[in-house]
Design goal:
alpha/beta; 7-stranded mixed sheet; binds S-adenosylmethionine; globular; Rossmann fold
C-alpha cells in the first residue's frame, strides 16, 4: 500500500554558496521552512531528491535576484524548488510530465500557502511545447535532478531548454540546473553543443557529487 508523509525542510542562508554578480544579498539569518508531502509509490516525482536541496540553497542565497521575477521549473517532482522560489518572492510556474506529479505539486503548493501555477510539460513533446500555456516572458528556468535515466532523456531535456530559451521574449535568460552525477555514460557537453547551448559550473558539492550549472544559449 502507498503511504504519504509530510517532510519538513529547513533552509538557512549559506555563506559558502555562490552569489551571482547581480545579487545584493548579504549573509543574514534568514530561515525558510518548506513542508513537502511525499508518496511512497516509487515514482521519481514522488520524493524530494538531494540535488533539490542545493538548488533551494542557491536561490535562497541569491533571493534578491529571483524576487518578483518569473521562474519556470521543469520536472518539479514534489515542487520543492518552485515553492522555494515562490517563498522568496518569485512568480512561479511549476511543471512536470504526469498527472500524478501535478496532484502532489498542487497539494504542496497549498500546504506551503504560496501562489504558483502548474502546467503539464513533457520534454520534447511537441504538443506540450507549442501549447499556449508555455510562458514566453520567463526570467529564469530552474530544475533539479533531471538527468538520471539515459542519453535520450538528456537530449529531450536540452531540446526543451533550447526551445524555451529561443522562444522567450528575452533570449539571454539562464537555466539553473542542479545535477546529481550518477554515471559517466552520459556526456552532457556534446549534447549542449548540438543544441547550441553552453554551461558554466557555478558550484560543486563534493560529498554528494552534485553540480550546479548555469546553461545559456551560445
Ligand atoms: C529525480 S526526479 C527530481 C524531482 C525534483 N526536481 C527534485 O529534485 O526533487 C525527476 C523529475 O523529472 C521528471 N521528468 C522525467 N522525465 C520527464 C519528461 N520527459 N518531461 C517532464 N518531466 C520529466 C519526473 O517526473 C520527476 O519529477
Amino acid at each position: 500500500m502507498d503511504h504519504q508523509m509530510v517532510k519538513c525542510f529547513q533552509f538557512k542562508t549559506d555563506s559558502s554558496m555562490i552569489r551571482l554578480s547581480d545579487s545584493s544579498d548579504q549573509n543574514d539569518d534568514t530561515i525558510i521552512e518548506i513542508k513537502i508531502l511525499q508518496n511512497s509509490d516509487n515514482r521519481y516525482s514522488s520524493i524530494t531528491w538531494p540535488s533539490a536541496d542545493l538548488l533551494c540553497r542557491f536561490m535562497l542565497a541569491n533571493r534578491t535576484v529571483f524576487m518578483e521575477k518569473t521562474v519556470l521549473e521543469l520536472g518539479s517532482g514534489t515542487g520543492i524548488c518552485g515553492i522555494m522560489a515562490a517563498k522568496i518572492g518569485a512568480k512561479v510556474i511549476l511543471s512536470d510530465q504526469n498527472v500524478f506529479a501535478s496532484e502532489l505539486i498542487l497539494k504542496n503548493v497549498e500546504l506551503n500557502n504560496v501562489n504558483a501555477q502548474f502546467i503539464p510539460l513533457d520534454w520534447g513533446r511537441k504538443s506540450d511545447l507549442l501549447n499556449d500555456r508555455i510562458p514566453t516572458d520567463i526570467d529564469y528556468i530552474i530544475g533539479s535532478d533531471l538527468c538520471y535515466e539515459d542519453e535520450q532523456q538528456f537530449e529531450k531535456l536540452l531540446l526543451t531548454i533550447a526551445f524555451l530559451l529561443r522562444n522567450n521574449r528575452q533570449q539571454s535568460i539562464p537555466f539553473y540546473m542542479s545535477y546529481h552525477f550518477r554515471s559517466s555514460n552520459y556526456q552532457i557537453e556534446c549534447l549542449l553543443r548540438k543544441f547550441k547551448l553552453q554551461s558554466k559550473l557555478l558550484f560543486y558539492s563534493d560529498n554528494l557529487k552534485i553540480y550546479l550549472y548555469e546553461i545559456t544559449l551560445i
